[in-house]
Amino acid sequence: MPIPDDVTGDEIDKDVRQELQSLPKGLAEDVSRNLVMVARLIDEDPEGAYAYSRIALRLASRVAAVREAAGFAAYANQKFSEALAEFRAARRMTGSVELWPVMADCERGLGRPEKALEMAGAPEVQKLDKASQVEMRLVAAGARRDMDQLDAAIVTLQSPELASNSVQPWTARLRYAYADALLAAGREDEAREWFAKAVESDKDGSTDASDRLAEMDGVEFVDAFVEDADDEEPGQTSASAVSAVSEKASADALDDDEDDDEDDDDDDDVRDAVTADVATDDVDGIDADDLQDDVEDVDDEDDGSEGDAARRPQS
After folding, report:
1. 284 exposure class (CB count in 10 Å sphere: 0-12, 13-18, 19+)
2. pTM of this prediction?
3. Could you count the other beta carbons within 10 Å of the beta carbon of residue 118?
4. For residue 189, how many other CB atoms are within 10 A of its CB?
5. CB 309, CB 102: distance < 8 Å
6. Rounded to 5 degrees, what are φ and ψ at 7?
7. Coil, strand, or helix at residue 314?
């Protein structure tokens, strides 16, 4: 497959580059360039990323970083059996447990939530760093939901990380998963609060919490450029749409200086109507101490629960 000229292979992580030093120089360069393409495409074009990963795998199947990249490319394409095989191979080569949560999620993808829960309780989890432990909790909660154990999924997600006011890389996804579980259990008021908390912490847009919150609040998004706007039902639209409507109206006015006053008034009415429809939400704070008390109460009532991890990672 073609690789752009600007891809040199030097873009890869230095640890991966060090692994590739065991290969002949020309081969190492070819492998690294294909790995760069996998990283570039995996979010926007997972099928393309998968194709490049297969080339890298053919060239250097004995390199752990290549097996790991192939695993993530397969995972992104929901080829869970293939992904699990690659992750297991990478783990055998390195002895690392960092892939444990995504391996458990592959078990979920293969329809084996019980196996994912078994992995969530394995000794390997204690060797994970904090971020990976949170991922494991998300996977385990997802497995509980796969088994229609909604209450257990909610309890699984209740943790010091959820109660903390500190915002970490995993905070938005953890709060989102908790809100989603609450909503599935019919606890809508609590779900709305936690979707709002997820929005607060989701600085890079890793979730669609804002859309879910708007949906719960009954916000309706409409096309700002529909014809005969006066005939449309009232609804809300985004601030960017308001700006676009305003710019379009201004451009129309410049293009036709001979519009009469009645037409100008109509344009003003459209802009005013759209602007009036923009909705914003205030987010109230959630008391972390109250949440922790709730967690302790649940633990006292059900000390034997197996739910100690969480939902499928959102890659």
Report:
1. exposed
2. 0.69
3. 15
4. 8
5. no
6. -90, 110
7. coil
What's the rounded Cα separation, in Å, for the pair 54 and 61? 10
Which tens digit of pLDDT belongs to each residue from 85-104? 999 999 999 999 999 999 99
For the record, the structure tokens of 175 come out as: 């709060």
Long-range contacts of 227-233 (CB under 8 A, 24+ apart): 229/270, 229/273, 229/274, 230/269, 230/270
Say if CB 298 and CB 255 are below 8 A apart: no
The one-letter amino acid code at 82 reads E
Alpha-carbon radius of gyration of the chain: 25
Terminal alpha carbon distance of the chain: 25
- Express each pLDDT in 218-243 by its tens digit: 876 665 555 444 444 444 433 443 34
